[in-house]
Design brief:
385 residues, alpha/beta, Aspartate Aminotransferase, domain 1, Aspartate Aminotransferase, domain 2, 7-stranded mixed sheet, 3-stranded antiparallel sheet, 14 helices, 12 strands, binds pyridoxal-5'-phosphate
Length: 385
């Protein structure tokens, strides 16, 4: 290999490996006990979505004339089903309107950079997801972090900005359940601060949609605060079990995004069948079965957190189905995850740059298809390491 370019890449990879930070693809083991997937309600695990697929194929096969969408929604990719599903979803989350994007990463990036200009301020919880940070970066707005869920710090940051600039927008970014820590912000307090200092709020509900609320409507709608939040994004690859992302808010926001969100405008619309499946999944959220599954996730999560804390593990401030077990070094996190994998548990080690240095962890995701016996066995094995 003599290309200068490839040698540079190889050196970067070598440095990562030396620091125990190299990432590798691993084929998911279906036979392993699932403590790692985002399939929180088990819609993939137990074949619920497979069953929807058979139903959709039977009921809708003649109604659509293409499988692939054949173009972006503004060219040839738009169908009535997009509008129907956007309406169904808006009803679930009690919001005025929603726009479907192909995935959460693109939705966050393109929504953020279509809304924020370089004159505006992005005040971001330090643990917000990479898609939020990347959107801010592309927008070239002025980024300031606030300490995770620290409202005094948040207030200090926005107060300082407002004392100098009364004109431009200040956007506050947070998540309903943080993906690596499993805790939630106090939305009431953030709203008070936002009102007082004239800020807009952007909320990502990736890990709460389908999980929080009687119908899985997510944190902001459950607390009836959704109307006071300017933009809410709902990635659908977690409890909703599929893919894509709704961005919800006022219908003016929707129209604006159709015109200015480049990730929406310049990208082929998803295969139409995905929308029919989403329609079934949204209907499922209202069922007794979904209610039961949410309850089970919540009970199992509480049980796991209690067991781990009683055995002295540091699970940070998790109060959800995402439970970090702090181990500290990258090397130790890899060692623990490998040992658990050898005992047939699917778990992942989360390391920098996904989390801050020195906070490498095993992240447990709890699901309705987990059992207390699996949790007890996992904790037993953890104690043996
Ligand atoms: C908080 C959060 N936002 C956005 C995303 C991106 O969503 P998607 O996987 O649909 O691209 C993720 C997924 O990892 C996430 O955890």
């Amino acid at each position: 290999m003599n290309s200068k370019f490839l040698k540079t890449l190889q050196r970067e990879l070598f440095l990562r490996k030396e620091k125990n930070l190299l990432r590798k693809l691993q084929v998911y083991r279906k036979e392993g006990v699932d403590f790692s997937s985002n399939d929180y309600l088990g819609l993939n695990f137990d074949g619920t979505i497979h069953n929807f697929l058979w139903k959709v194929l039977e009921e809708y096969k003649v109604q659509e004339f293409t499988f692939g969408s054949t173009g972006s929604r503004l060219i040839s990719g738009h169908r009535k089903i997009f509008e129907e599903v956007e309406k169904d979803f808006s009803f679930l989350v009690k919001n005025s309107d929603s726009l479907y994007f192909t995935n959460g990463y693109v939705a966050n990036i393109s929504t953020i950079y279509s809304l924020l200009s370089p004159r505006d301020y992005a005040v971001v919880d330090q643990f917000c997801h990479a898609s939020i940070l990347d959107g801010i970066r592309i927008s070239r707005s002025k980024k300031l972090y606030f300490l995770h869920n620290d409202y005094d710090h948040l207030e200090n940051v926005v107060k300082k900005i407002r004392s100098k600039d009364t004109k431009n927008y200040i956007w506050i970014f947070t998540e309903a359940i943080f993906s690596m820590d499993g805790d939630s912000p106090n939305l009431d307090i953030i709203l008070q601060i936002a009102k007082h200092y004239d800020c807009e709020i952007f909320l990502d509900e990736a890990h709460s949609i389908g999980i929080i609320g009687d119908q899985g409507e997510g944190l902001s709608s459950y607390l009836n605060l959704h109307n006071e939040i300017s933009v809410i994004t709902y990635p659908l690859g977690k409890a909703m079990g599929l893919m894509g992302c709704f961005v919800s808010g006022d219908s003016i926001l929707k129209e604006y995004l159709i015109n200015f969100a480049r990730g929406f405008i310049f990208s082929t619309a998803i295969p139409i069948i995905i929308l029919y499946l989403l329609k079934e999944i949204i209907s499922f959220m209202y069922t007794q079965e979904a209610f039961y599954r949410r309850k089970k996730v919540s009970e199992l999560s509480e049980y796991t957190r209690k067991q781990l804390v009683s055995k002295g593990y540091n699970i940070k401030n998790s109060n959800s189905h995402i439970i970090p077990i702090l181990v500290g070094s990258e090397e130790e996190a890899l060692k623990v995850s490998e040992s658990l994998k050898n005992k047939n548990f699917n778990v992942v080690a989360i390391r920098p740059p996904t989390v801050p240095a020195g906070t490498s962890r095993i992240r447990l995701n709890l699901h309705s298809h987990n059992t207390k016996e699996e949790i007890d066995a996992l904790i037993y094995e953890l104690n043996q390491i």
